[in-house]
């Protein structure tokens, strides 16, 4: 006979069995089929680096630091108690914890400190893993990666190159001679010019002789300077010869603070732990980098690295959001099944998995091109860098938004990492050139150097005949090459998708590659995630599961 207590429906039922815990204590590298495969193939010597960093990604202490760094934001102190200029930014200890983890793992410098083959790819995997943790610290990490070859190319800056490349982090605001490691920022954009650096009005004049490595004095402003507490900035100013690149340390050679004023910190949508600022130069000491009038050329020589980092970083952010969605849907039950097994949900998860797989393989392919030494590698890097930056950074916001849908209301509260990912997602498409700038760059390359497309088409040709839709995509690309400016985003999108498809055919399970091609190139796909049809959803989802 049923007791009164057992029949009392006003009593709450036990619910703990269906409450999803935090995603913790799983190795983000060893559980990632794409990252492990690409390192095993092309840079096995770095597997221990990735394994060590992979252990940190989903560690509860790392997640706590990433959350706290975004909650307790940087604060600008322009003056001390009695009114003397300070111009320092103070960070929460969690930010310094994250910086120590990232720089200690050489997520910024492994490409330049290792002599092993595949060092750019190895560093890209480190960046991919770190971007699953925090985007705010990924910014100074990426700037260091791009700046090291510039510093090494100029003897006057060699001591700086050594400290920026150190597998260490030293946040002290002090002259470089007293520090064991250094960070570096880029300060290019001005309020009136934006991406058009030739419109800059900041000026630099020589102290004595003109030329590479000589001392200059800089006056002017910069409208966006991220990580202003870096130990030095690479900046652009007008000299008598034209637009030039200069190195501006935070301290003068005599040990006094340089003439740099931090006016304000930006109140940004995301990436908030990274103190983006507005600065002014007041007779700031600087060293000319390269010859006068060659500033844009000097800066562009490093942009391939920052843009690669954004493409890989966006793939990493997709991976983080997908990991959260899969973990939640595999754990949570509804209507007698796991969410991931529901016929309405499995196509969504599989579609997200395809998007991540294409993005990860594309980003890592560009990194492999950086490791090459022949003309084909150089051409591949020149074209695929803006293509991958454009496409991966465009797609990540949609992936994160759909991942929030997969978790539901629990993924919309600030205790969950997904809102942080969502605010972070649009930024990589803006930094170092917006989407249209990437499209313009591709058009410029194809117009001036039409042969840059050939290595990419050759890769696609190696799998020709494997799928009619991919063959048609290659023909479409070839038909548009005579007038790339007229087809713009359509052409860049086709190049991205066809390259992803060829990479998946070579490196991923057949079911993944064919589903990607059918949906992205075959026309059997709707405008949103979850419209896949007639594919093995479980096999695709399993490819994306950690473990």
Automatic annotation (TrEMBL):
Pfam assignment, any one: AidB_N
Keyword Repeat: no
Domain Acyl-CoA dehydrogenase/oxidase C-terminal: 294-446
Presence of keyword Transmembrane: no
Superkingdom field: Bacteria
Database matches in InterPro entries: Acyl-CoA_dehydrogenase-like, Acyl-CoA_DH_CS, Acyl-CoA_Oxase/DH_mid-dom, AcylCo_DH-like_C, AcylCo_DH/oxidase_C, AcylCoA_DH/oxidase_NM_dom_sf, AidB_N
Keywords of this entry: FAD, Flavoprotein, Oxidoreductase
CC cofactor: FAD
Ranges of residues in domain Adaptive response protein AidB N-terminal: 18-171
Acyl-CoA oxidase/dehydrogenase middle domain ranges (all copies): 185-283
Protein name listed in UniProt: Putative acyl-CoA dehydrogenase
